[in-house]
Hints:
Elements: E1 3-7, E2 10-13, E3 18-25, E4 34-39, E5 45-51, E6 58-60, E7 68-73, E8 78-83, E9 92-97, E10 109-114
Parallel strand pairs: 2-10
Antiparallel strand pairs: 1-3, 3-8, 4-5, 4-9, 5-6, 7-8, 9-10
Amino acid sequence: QVQLMESGGGSVQTGGSLTLSCVGSGFPFYRVVMHWVRQVPGAGLEWVSSIHADGVVTDYSDSVKGRFFMSRDNSKNEVHLRMTNVKPEDTAQYHCATSRQGGNRGPGTQVTVSP
């Protein structure tokens, strides 16, 4: 079955950087558009970014555009999210997923941005 596992979260100060990673298994990773979504307690899932199977085409929400950068390594079944110039409002549980709505998402990794 589809399995996704995120890592790399932690605490970071405003303006800092962090890189999240996600490893996938149980599906043809190299053929699938991958996504990052995030969730704050009490709120719904928020789509963050997507990357096409070719690793070239990416898309970002307006809230992170120009600050977050998504990449993938199909040889390792990995996607990454490089977070730069982070803000307190980026604090959330981050999940990788196989759909913008958070389908098949992993357990997530927590990112906490302090002022």
